[in-house]
# Entry
Amino acid sequence: MCIFCKIANKEIPSKVVYEDEDVLAFHDLNPQAPTHVLVVPKRHITGIGHAVPEDEIVLGRLLLAARRVAEETGIAESGFRTVINHGANAGQTVFHIHVHVLGGRPMAWPPG
Ligand code: 5GP
Ligand code: ZN
# Structure
């Protein structure tokens, strides 16, 4: 079982921000901004590049959960960034789809 499946199953502890039937949001272990939360589906999807039409509802729920995370962590007003890395050039290191929710400081554009 992959590391984020284990976190979603509570086999590995995490600092949970939001949870529902389909989704878990928890603080990143190595935060890249004052607020850095990961939103994952409880059901394993390897990456955005492997999503299929049957994933439509859970993909929408990930983004709605990201919005809730932004509100509950107090970064919705000041602004926040959502990132989904896929594959080598994007720097994906965990192969269970996750939405990064980053905020609490200005974000550069273009991203690095
Ligand atoms: P990626 O580079 O795949 O887009 O992002 C993976 C993220 O997962 C990284 O930001 C990394 O810090 C985070 N991460 C990796 N392992 C763990 C873990 O065991 N717990 C938590 N909370 N975050 C993790
Ligand atoms: Zn997984």
User: Anything to note?
Assistant: Residues 3-103 form a domain with the HIT family, subunit A fold (CATH 3.30.428.10). Residues 2, 4-5, 44, 96 surround zinc ion (ligand 2) (CB under 6 Å).
